Amino acid sequence: MSSADDSVVVRFVTEDDKDGWQRLWKSFQEFYEVSFPNELDDFNFKRFLDPTVKMWAAVAVNGLSGEIIGMVNFFSHMSTWDFKDKIYINDLYVGENSRIKGVGRKLIQFVYEEADKLGTPSEYWCTDESNHRAQILYTKIGYKAPKIMYKRNGY
Ligand SMILES: CC(C)(COP(=O)(O)OP(=O)(O)OC[C@H]1O[C@@H](n2cnc3c(N)ncnc32)[C@H](O)[C@@H]1OP(=O)(O)O)[C@@H](O)C(=O)NCCC(=O)NCCS
Question: pTM higher than 0.85 for the full model?
Fold first, then answer.
């Protein structure tokens, strides 16, 4: 198991993190070959900081340089299958130069810990069938559910 350098800290975003978060958010879009308008970035970031909205973002920060090297965006929702809400991990991204050092694992562990604190310890997420690199990590930190996703349209 690779472990992120102890100097890498994962924490919720603050107002000052907008530029660093947005840089990774744009790279994440390039990775998925999608492009969202800047207005959506602003909308998302406002939601992350709004204590009345159950949507959050956390960043991995290199403690030495202060650079934001990873991000995870997640939200909570109700489910008929449980009394408790479930957490959906919407987006996960680690900068190319910081990969395979345990940062992705650390970001997901942060979500697990925060979800436990909220009393909603059930998390789930999706990835592309072709995203083998992500799946290497995911099968170590969760399990592959026997589900297929359908959509009416869109991404
Ligand atoms: C998927 C992603 C978040 C993983 O981040 P990361 O920081 O590299 O992940 P980690 O280092 O925590 O974990 C990678 C695990 O895969 C293992 N691994 C083995 N061979 C690997 C390889 N060739 N490539 C990548 N990981 C490999 C690592 O050893 C590690 O396992 P370990 O913790 O048990 O040692 C990152 O690659 C990324 O941002 N990719 C582009 C965007 C993306 O795919 N996001 C996910 C969308 S669902």
Answer: yes
